[in-house]
Amino acid sequence: MSGPGLIADYLGALSAQLPRPVVEELADGFEETYQRYQRLGLAPAAAAEAAVAEFGDPRLIVAGYARAHPARQAALRLLAFGPVVGSCWAVALVTTHAWTWPIPVMADIVPGLVLVTSVALLGVAALSTRYRIVARAGTAGCVGVMALDIAMIPSVVLVDPALSWVAGLAMTLSAVRLAFGARLLHPVLVRR
Fold first, then answer.
1. Which residues, 6 or more positions from 56, have their beta carbon under 8 angstroms from its beta carbon?
2. Which of 3, 39, 121, 167 is the most exposed place for a label (fewest CB within 10 A)?
3. pLDDT (0 to 100) of residue 46
4. 4, 44 contact by CB (below 8 A)
5. Hey, where are the domains in the chain?
6. Which helix (H) or strand (E) holds 156?
7. Are 174 and 85 in contact (CB under 8 A)?
8. Is the dihedral of CA 47, 49, 53, 58 positive or negative?
9. In the predicted model, what is the mean pLDDT of residues 64-85?
């Protein structure tokens, strides 16, 4: 394959999985590397092969960008912090006998579904090596956790105004997680 064809195929593989600005930046570096090999005396095809060899497998480049994505970092942090907040909520809901609260059945089911879905999405973001999947799953998982926190705090106050200290702690931790999530999501949303 000729030099320009090899380069186009390589950049095409990156374009299929990375956003345009990232690929454009990589293309600039790739072009510089290609030109450097030509200045060293390599023919265009050999210079392209050397540049491709130096840059490495496109899948590894995509995986590296996925690992560094802010949505993945947010997912990892929320997964680490989530069990602490969840445990506080579980203790608070059990000690206040939440199953006796006068709320509709769907109000019991929906938060659980949101929680399971959000944790699954955060897990996908934490484990995936595909950039766009990390971005979408991480963002959606973070938003889901934040929505759950936003819903839980006022709901508990409305249903049981005589809060226990554990419920107060759970609400405080949820508020901290909300602020933390907003701070973590900011770079993700700015990138779009």
1. none
2. 39
3. 92
4. yes
5. 3-64, 69-191
6. helix 131-159
7. yes
8. positive
9. 91
